[in-house]
Amino acid sequence: MILKILVCFFAGMGAGLGTGFAGMSAAAVISPMLITFLGMTAYEAVGIALASDVLASAVSAYTYGKNKNLDIKNGLVMMASVLLFTLFGSWAASKVPNATMGGFSVVMTFLLGIKFIVKPVMTTREAMNGVRPAKRFVQSLISGALVGFICGFVGAGGGMMMLLVLTSLLGYELKTAVGTSVFIMSFTALTGAAGHFAIGGIPDIFCLVFCVLFTLLWARIAARFANKASAATLNRATGCVLAILGAAILLVNHVRPAGL
To answer: Which of 148, 155, 181, 190 would bridge 85 by S-S if both were Cys, CB 3.0 to 4.6 A apart?
Structure first.
């Protein structure tokens, strides 16, 4: 029982910090920890992670939106495109043997963290808003298709892909990029969680409740800090959180306690 609480606490803390700071999917943190330390099946662990993502992403999106760091209009366009092309990517992956890339999201998390530290995103809100609405609509549509297809084909990396695309290709300033990313993720995670529970049934209730609560708590803390921080501070904090989480998940994926 104590082991379960500790694992859920640290998994929720890592997932919440990643979500609140960078729009990172909770599945990247929670799933490997539940599988490694509690011996849970991958399907059950992913279901719990997706359920944890829903409220954590929603409360983070609310916090970013409250501070006017959320692009709902283009976020909805990107979300529709992501959902559609995730299905297409999944279908394409089924036609190609060994298409999935193991550890893709973990390595991407680590490298993206280093990127924010070495080359921070310093785009201003004025520069971001200078893009014509029609151009932004097309960018959101195409970028959503790209993210959705890669996520469906590879099977991971949605939150990190969205953050990278929003900051590097669409020219979003960091806070709005994270706010828009978690807004999209709250819906995609809800769809994924509902599908998992409908097919596989309700997972371990104890782990489900505690992972959801701990992820929600730390996501709220991280989102509030992020919206009050300066661009330079947020870049450093986001970079450190992602780099540490990426390294920690890599370690967890290669270390299994005796007896499990």
So the answer is: 148
Q: Which domain holds residue 13?
A: 2-254
Which segments in the chain show pLDDT lower than 50? 98-102, 257-260
Question: Is residue 154 a part of any domain in this protein?
Answer: yes
Has residue 122 been placed in a domain?
yes
Q: pLDDT tens across 69-109, in order?
A: 999 999 999 999 988 888 887 677 666 654 444 456 667 77
Which two structure tokens, joined as six digits, stand for 134?
Answer: 């029609």
Q: Would 260 be classed as within a structural domain? A: no
CB atoms within 10 A of CB 118: 9
Report CA Rg, the chain.
Answer: 17
How far, in Å, are 5, 12, 23, 32, 256 from residue 208 at the CA level?
Answer: 11, 10, 20, 15, 22
Q: How many domains does the chain have?
A: 1
C-alpha to C-alpha distance for 239 and 247, rounded to whole angstroms: 12
Pick from 42, 51, 44, 43: which is nearest to 12 by CA?
51
Contact 103, 250 (CB under 8 A): yes
In-domain check, residue 119:
yes
Predicted local confidence at residue 52, as pLDDT: 93
Q: Phi and psi (nearest 5°) for 259?
A: 100, -10
Rounded Cα gap, residues 174 and 168, in angstroms? 10
- SS3 call for 258: coil
Whole-number Cα distances in Å, 134 to 72, 121, 138, 143, 177: 15, 24, 6, 14, 19
Q: What is the DSSP letter of 155?
A: S
Eight-class DSSP state of 172: -
- The two tokens of residue 9 are 């606490």
Residues shown for the chain = 260
